[in-house]
Structure formats: C-alpha cells, structure tokens
Amino acid sequence: MQQLLWAILLFVFSQNSVAFDPLDPFGNITIKWDVISWTPDGYVALVTMNNFQMYRHIMTPGWTLGWNWAKKEVIWSMVGAQTTEQGDCSKFKGGNVPHCCKRDPVVVDLLPGVPYNQQIANCCKGGVVSSYGQDPSAAVSAFQVSVGLAGTSNKTVKLPKNFTLLAPGPGYTCGPATIVPSTVYWTKDRRRKTQALMTWNVTCTYSQFLVSKHPSCCVSFSSFYNETITPCPSCSCGCHNKDKCIKSGSKRATSVGVNTPRKDNEPLLQCTHHMCPIRVHWHVKQNYKDYWRVKLAVTNFNYRLNYTQWTLVAQHPNLNNVTQVFSFDYKPLVPYQSINDTAMFYGMKFYNDLLMEAGPFGNVQSEVLLQKDKNTFTFKQGWAFPRKVYFNGDECMLPPPEAYPSLPNDAKIEAITISAIVASVIWLIHLFIW
C-alpha cells in the first residue's frame, strides 16, 4: 500500500513538474479578459496577453489564441485582432453579420500598419511579444472583442473554456478561466480610477517536452589551457533530419533564400554531427590575477529561420560577479533570493539582436569578464563551464562532464598564463627583428 502511494505521488509530481522551469519558476503567459461594457445581447471585453517569462518570447509568425464558447456566443466585431475563419453565419439575415460564428474561434494579431480605426494599445505587432526580462513594455499584446448571444451581467455570463495558445508552435498548456478581482484603470492625470465590470484570467505555462522530445540547441566547450575542443554530443537534437541536411559550401546552400520558413516550421539544417539548429560555444579565453574572461558564440545552422530578439541564459556560480559584458546586453536573473548564479544575455537593439540564418553571417558573439571569488574559483574538474544553458527559453544539450577540457597534469594555471605571455613576447620580438 505504501509503495502504491509513493508511485501515485511520483506520477502526480512528474505531471505537474513538466512545465516547471527552475530558472524561471514564476514564468507564464497570463491572458486577462476585462468586461468593459455590457451590450443588449452580450458584452465588450478587452483581452490582454501578458508574457511574464523572463527569457522566453513569442517569435514571428506570432501567437494564435483559441477557445470554446460555453453557449452559442458569436463575435460581432474585433479591434486589434481577427479570427482566422468566419464560420457559418447563414442564420443572420440582413447586413448585420458577425465577424465570427464558430463555436471554437481562433484569433491572431493584426500586422503592423493597419488603419488606426482597427488598432488599440499594444496590438498589431504580428503576434510578436518580447520576454519580460528583455523589455517589459513590449511583453504584452491586446485586442478588443464584442461578444453577442452571451450573458449581459456578472451572473449570466459563461466563461469561455478549453483555451489553447500557439506561440507560434506547440508548447503551452492553458488552465481554465478563473474569475478574479476586477481590473482597476487610472485616468491619464491619475486623479480618477475606474474598474472593469468583470475580469477573468487564463494562465498558460510552457513545456519544452511538448515541443519536441529532442533539444533544439547544444553546447560545445574549449579553453586556453587545453588544445582539445569538446564538441556538442552527436545527434544532440536528434538525427531525424540527417537525410535532408545541406552540406556547408554546397551550391544548394548558397541558393537557399533568405528567411524563407515553411508553414510547418520544419528546419532546413546545415549538415553537422549534432544536427541542431543552434550551437552555443563557451570558451574560457584568459586568466588574470583577479579576473577571468569567457567568450560566448551562438551559431545558427538553420537555413530557414532568422532568430529575432534571441536570448541566451547561462547558469554558473561565478555569474554573480560579472564585471563587464562586451557587445551583448546583460541582465542578472535571481529566481531565488539567496542564489544569484544565472545571467541572461541578449542582442543590442539594431546591432546584433537579429541572429541571421545559417551562412557566413549566422552567428553572434561576445566576451564576458568575471571577477574571481578566491574562496571558490578553480579551473579544475570543469568548474569553469556552465551548469545549464538555454537559448530562446529552451534548455540546450551539454557535453558529458568527463569530456570537459581539463587542466594539464601537475600544472598550475598561473604557470600556464605566464608561459603564454612569455611566448607572446618572444614572438613579438622575433617579428620586429625580422
């Protein structure tokens, strides 16, 4: 009986922990419905999608939101978004035909540049939503919907159910709509506040396992004190695309169009032993008396996708002493108040926030200067390499610990550094003499 109880508890825990991210424990997308007015046969609601995930954003072609009506509701009109289908509205006669009559409408954001009378605040970005850690002001999307054949009061309205969110592919699981205290609004002069007539929330959480059973990125290592480069493990991201990959430098590779994704988002990868769209390389570059330097490089092996507003997250005990980051933006992440070992890196706007598709420009790189904590700092046993690495919110495959670059036998790192400096000086003297 006791074994059965433990088995049940383990099953429940595993099911609930699928969507739990230890580096972003409170990350989710919350969809809030605010009823702002009643109509003769329903209501007008402002629907706001807030991305509270620190480093996972919604890329182009953007989000798709769906639900099922509880009764026989219809959508009379929308501002800032549209449904993908109108459905069968044949029972409505005359010129007053609803925008959508489907029992399970599917909504998408409008593209930028639509007329002003079709816009509201935070709409019309093609469904692209920033991560909260990068830009909180852009981590929101909204639209307005006029619902008919629905309840006309708090007691008669039936909440929609079975919410689904694609962003743009699978990965999100949405809970049921829950009535919460009504949202409060302030006027621009902050002298008066009003509130929604009724508010309900829907919370959606992300699970990488729902997207694919294989990772979408991998990590390789190298260091100045060891000539060995530790590559990504073979088939890190699965080898199911091995027969469709393109060899680097081939005529087909040079003829692939720029940013030409397919509707099914299937990648077209450069042939590698790891078969990943993204590779992150962590190189221990230099060692100083009080500091050490790491070089980060991200390479795109996907010929069909540019990564916009990309994010790179690393967990390492010395990331609590970041001194300077070159050519990337940086933000410390503190998922737990007592632990500060996680950092988010992302591109500088209009400089390297776009990671181009596979090819000569398909990489971004930076260097990080870290101050040593002499009580914990060491190069032994792979300490200089990260514990976890995420790209665009998905955890990357790391090499096995036994493959990490190791210190030469009986060598001290200070001696190695001095030897490297002496060799560089001798080389420079030789260069000037000759």
Automatic annotation (TrEMBL):
UniProt cross-references to Pfam families, sorted A to Z: COB_C (PF25079), COBRA (PF04833)
Localization per record: Cell membrane
Keyword Signal: yes
Name the UniProt record assigns to this protein: COBRA-like protein
Keyword field: Glycoprotein, GPI-anchor, Lipoprotein, Membrane, Signal
InterPro entries recorded: COB_C, COBRA_pln
Entry's transmembrane regions: none
Gene name of the record: COBL5
Domain COBRA C-terminal residue range list: 216-405
Family: Belongs to the COBRA family.
Signal peptide: 1-19
GO biological process: cellulose microfibril organization
Cellular component terms (Gene Ontology): plasma membrane; side of membrane
Membrane topology listed for this record: Lipid-anchor; GPI-anchor
